[in-house]
């Protein structure tokens, strides 16, 4: 009984540490990003943002709202869709939109691929955009900023006259490399498997091959355009091969064994 009590106590302490650590991480993130807001929301504001598990409706929030408690998970390499609904008190104004994701988690939205969407001077009742989470995104918790400004395109770190800014949380996870293959008629061969060194790949068309090898945790270990790959430097274990022919993508598990 005493042993069970000790185990429960340790479990509670570990979970309490996790909660405190997570809250501390969110607080650190909040302090990293430069502020941005709309000076007035008398005529327009962000009424709703939809992305994955995020489906947040709100009224005017004084030009800025920290919705980092609203989060969703995205996988590297996955296609995502974001929808933004403006709110108007009456007249429909031309609104401009910008959305950023801090893919490298460095506390800003200034890097080349972090502006994922922008649209100028729209009176549409909602705007929608698709984007792909890049391969160089860092796994973990990060920030997404959604901005809507009257007429001018908003910048990530500046205030503007009319409109609103909202911040959200994204959890970036490894690529879902075990996704179901849609086209089951694709013929390919990977041999020998298991292998100690060389993997040979044959498909219907080897002219435009893009080959990637991932660890069991989804980390990209090797990229090549060759149909003959040497993995002798890898530790023994199971890896996932991603084969892109330019027309189709499919996966195969391989065993590295001396």
Distance between the termini: 48 Å
Structural class: mainly beta
Helicity range? 10-25%
The major pleated sheet works out as: 6 strands, mixed
Under CATH at level 1, the class of the largest domain stands as Mainly Beta
CATH architecture label name of the largest domain? Sandwich
The name of the CATH topology of the largest domain is: Immunoglobulin-like
Gyration radius from CA atoms, angstroms: 23 Å
> What is the general shape?
elongated
Description:
The model is unreliable at 1-26 and 178-184 (pLDDT under 50). This protein has one helix at residues 2-32; strands spanning 38-40, 44-51, 54-57, 64-75, 79-88, 95-101, 115-122, 127-132, 140-150, 160-173, 188-191, 198-203, 210-214, 220-224, 228-230, 237-244, 249-256. The protein is built from 1 helix and 17 strands. Strand 2 (44-51) and strand 3 form a beta hairpin. It is elongated, with a radius of gyration of 23 Å. It folds into 3 domains: 1-32; 33-173, Immunoglobulin-like; 188-256, Immunoglobulins (Immunoglobulin-like, Sandwich), CATH 2.60.40.10. It has 258 residues and is mainly beta. The strands form 4 sheets. Strands 1, 4, 6, 7, 9 and 10 form a 6-stranded mixed β-sheet that branches. Helices cover 12% and strands 47% of the residues.
